[in-house]
Write a structure and sequence with these properties.
heterodimer, A: about 700 residues, alpha+beta, six-stranded mixed β-sheet, five-stranded mixed β-sheet, 23 helices, elongated, B: about 120 residues, alpha/beta, five-stranded parallel β-sheet, about 45% helix, globular
């Protein structure tokens, strides 16, 4: 099994992101004047892991950059320096830099060197008093000491190795060390000195009483010898002396072996440590450039499949699945048993077996879907930073309250809801919250609150974004809408409820901001937010009260693979209407039906005119006939309502969505297909598409409009 | 077969160490942090332990101390895999009872070479 570097690299990227998240979250939670040492440790560890991993994967820019952060954090950890709100800022920006570099490595994108060097300089400034520690490790230090005696005619090395008695307790073994010496010089001469062995009565088996004299070939580098003793240098008395010239001295060496103490007293060398160290550092530095290029290539080649995303699943979830599959297998074998030798008296057993199968399948389904579920915190976690940055830029005081971050949501839905949420939070701070003095004037706390909340409701997840700002003034909104031509000029304010007016903020090309700022109003409006949400099969609602604040409520399906559907019958065909779009179903009272210009039938329901769409005609299934007493299913999408004329309402059930587009072709008015219990295929209605098509036909055919 | 326990809080490093060692024919088990490693070491006797220094819950130094306190691991080689190169850190490692250290960046050849020094 070969090492798949790309796979590991991908894993590292993922891990690095997690560490960055930890870094950011912890930093955001810090109050510089009162820092918990454990928090600093956590932050340090995150930086440390990034550095270590980056170095391992040859991402030297990241490891070098992170080293500076780590060095500073280390000083903080050791209480030599203390955190300030400025240094927290610098560290946060450092995290951003690393993130950028990561993306750079993943996509071969160039990284803005300016930001990096600014942050590096600021980090250096923070470290000012203690800069030297940062340079020792990364810069390869060429050591000249090793070269010193190379010119002399060296004939051998005399190594005197006297382990301390407790050497074994570090897991080291002198015999292994001798063995290594023999590996670099097979002809080495080894003499063991056992003179320190105590009499048997006082002998302790776990202590080391022996010492050794080893004579090695002079061609061997001193560093190579020192390296072997590197781990035990402070657990032994070690003396390495070069032997020059004649054979005599070598012989005297063996002679001195009888009295090792004398040698020890003369020279207890503590030198090898720094030298050996710098040598190993140099080696690493030499290797890196060629290695970096060699490994960069496969990385680039693998870029194409970077879109293949992975998911990290809690091991408990996997265990659960395995258990369930086990259960399923048992049930299956039980049913096979019954089937092999079936008689009518076994019908009860068969039924209970089938019940069990149903139960297993249901649980399996739930658990499989659960694998794709991630907690909302994945989306929410970015907001503390966003709010922090925005509030300081806008000079507003903002308190961010997050709840329900453990609520789980499908990964795809979660990923696609982030942008709309960011937009809403930005809007809330930029347009919603007032400046502190304005708030004080109107008797509010100068610190505004933005709250994010997520919870489950039925088969859906609800995400709320609330602010306690100025609220939206419906009349002003109306005027603005008129000005921008969002509503047609013949519409009157009185004809619309406040809620309908509020919904105008979702109209394309509508911005409530008076000026386009760099924070919001860059052309991505609330219409995009709504479209994104609706593409996910969800919807968004807004509520607002002047002076009290605004609240946006997003409902989303838990997953995109399964939906709660209402089965309906139209001309003998069964269709599925997504339950989430259904407002209500009513029996038609012909007295409430009016005919508008262009032949459009409108149903008057509680102050509202709802256009009727006859599905029979829409799908070319024949004439639908008289409306009297028939069923009208009121559906809503994008704030527009329409009544669908049906023959029959069947049951409600969860349906597994199969794409029509990838299996057949895109069909307007249909969002997908599903297979019903009897094996027949049923089409799922695309309510949004139906309404849009209906509106378009109407606009083409007449000047009247759907009352939104 | 030589049984090795490798503890590191980084998944990628853990995988890399484990792959390298398995490729070289060792029997490898991994642990996510010191306390996980300690638990595993108590359940099975390992011939060599390789551990990162900075880990959540229980760091490498604490792990070494705890293992050395266990008669089964009195003389077992324990290597620290670390980015810390300072003499001070190494001294701390030694004092805790570590056998030796491997300096990151992790390199498969170095790991195997270093490992050979203890088994």
């Amino acid at each position: 099994m070969a090492l798949d570097m790309n796979q590991l690299r991908k894993m590292f990227f993922e891990e690095c992101r997690e560490n960055l998240e930890v870094l950011e979250t912890e930093l955001l939670g810090i109050q510089p004047e009162n820092v918990d040492p454990e928090t600093i440790n956590t932050i340090f560890r995150a930086a440390h892991s990034i550095k270590g991993g980056a170095a391992t994967f040859n991402l030297l820019d990241i490891s070098e950059f992170t080293h500076a952060m780590e060095a500073y954090l280390d000083e903080v950890r050791n209480e030599k320096l203390s955190l300030t709100s400025h240094s927290v800022d610098v560290l946060l920006r450092g995290g951003d830099c690393i993130k950028e570099m990561l993306v750079g490595h993943e996509n071969d994108a160039p990284v803005d060197p300016e930001l990096r060097s600014t942050v590096t300089n600021e980090l250096k400034k923070l470290l000012e008093s203690d800069t030297d520690s940062s340079s020792t490790e990364s810069a390869p230090v060429e050591d000249s000491a090793t070269v010193v005696d190379q010119n002399a005619p060296r004939v051998g090395w005399h190594v005197n190795f006297l382990p301390h008695q407790d050497l074994f307790f570090s897991g080291n073994d002198p015999l292994r060390i001798i063995g290594e010496l023999l590996e670099i010089d097979a002809s080495a001469e080894v003499v063991c000195d056992s003179s320190k062995l105590p009499p048997l009565a006082g002998f302790e088996a776990e202590l080391c009483y022996l010492s050794w004299q080893v004579n090695l070939d002079g061609m061997i580098e001193e560093d190579a010898i020192k390296e072997i003793f590197e781990w035990v240098e402070d657990q032994c008395d070690l003396h390495i002396t070069p032997q020059y010239g004649d054979l005599e001295s070598a012989q005297t060496d063996t002679a001195t072996a009888a009295e090792p103490e004398a040698v020890v007293e003369k020279t207890v060398s503590t030198e090898p440590q720094p030298m050996a160290e710098s040598a190993s550092v140099t080696k690493v530095a030499e290797k890196t450039p060629e290695k970096a290029t060699a490994e960069d290539k496969p990385q680039r080649a693998a870029k194409a499949d970077s879109s293949v995303s992975s998911i990290r699943v809690d091991i408990d979830k996997v265990d659960n699945l395995i258990n369930l599959v086990g259960e399923l297998v048992i049930t299956q074998s039980m049913l096979t048993e019954i089937g092999n030798d079936f008689s009518n008296d076994k019908i009860g057993k068969l039924k209970s077996g089938l019940d069990q199968l149903l139960q297993n399948t249901k649980e399996l389904q739930e658990n499989v879907l659960n694998i794709r579920m991630l907690p909302m915190s994945f989306a929410f976690s970015r907001f503390p930073r966003l709010v922090r940055d925005l509030s300081s830029r806008l000079e507003k005081q903002v308190n961010l309250v997050i709840s329900g971050e453990h609520t789980e949501l499908d990964k795809t839905v979660l990923e696609r809801i982030v942008d709309p949420l960011v937009h809403l939070v930005r809007n809330g701070i930029d347009h919603g919250l007032e400046l502190p003095d304005v708030r004080t004037e109107s008797g509010k706390d100068p610190m505004g609150t933005i709250s994010l909340n997520a919870y489950h409701q039925g088969g859906a997840i609800v995400i709320e974004v609330k602010d306690d700002g100025a609220g939206i003034d419906c009349d002003r909104l109306w005027n603005k809408a008129m000005e921008k031509g969002v509503v047609s000029s013949d519409m009157r304010r009185e004809e619309m409820t406040d809620k309908q007016v509020l919904n105008l903020i979702f109209a394309p090309g509508f911005s409530t901001a008076n000026e386009v700022s760099d924070i919001s109003g860059r052309g991505v409006g609330m219409d995009v937010v709504r479209r994104n949400i609706e593409e996910l099969g969800g919807h968004i609602e807004v509520e607002s009260a002047v002076g009290v604040g605004s609240s946006f409520t997003i409902s989303l399906p838990l997953t995109l693979a399964i939906l709660d559907g209402q089965l309906v019958k139209v001309a003998g065909e069964v269709y599925v209407i997504p339950l989430i779009t259904i407002v209500e179903s009513i029996q038609i009272d012909t007295q409430c039906v009016k005919l508008a210009s262009g032949g459009i039938e409108l149903y008057r329901l509680r102050e509202e005119n709802i256009p009727i769409l006859r599905l029979h005609e829409e799908f070319g299934l024949g004439e639908s006939g008289s409306l009297d007493g028939r069923l009208l299913c009121l559906v809503e999408a994008a704030g527009n309502r329409i009544g669908l004329l049906l023959d029959e309402l069947l049951g409600q059930q969860q349906v597994v969505i199969k794409s029509l587009e990838s299996n057949y072709t895109k069909v307007s008015g249909i969002s997908g297909a599903t297979i019903l219990g009897d094996g027949s295929v049923s089409l799922i209605l695309d309510i949004q598409g139906l309404i849009t098509a209906f509106k378009r036909r109407q606009a083409d055919g007449s000047s009247g409009g759907i009352a939104a | 077969m030589t049984k090795i326990l490798a503890a590191d809080d980084s998944v990628s490093i853990r995988q890399m160490v484990s792959h390298t060692l398995k490729d070289a024919g060792y029997d490898v088990e991994t642990a996510n942090d010191g306390s996980d490693a300690l638990k595993k070491a108590q359940a099975t006797k390992f011939d060599v332990v390789i551990s990162d220094v900075n880990m959540p819950i229980m760091g490498g130094l604490e792990l070494v101390k705890a293992l050395r306190g266990n008669p089964q691991y009195k003389f077992t080689p324990i290597l620290m895999l670390t980015t810390e190169t300072s003499a001070e850190k190494k001294q701390q490692g030694k004092a805790a009872g570590a056998t030796g250290w491997l300096v990151k960046p992790f390199n498969p050849d170095t790991l195997l070479k270093t490992l050979k020094r203890v088994i």
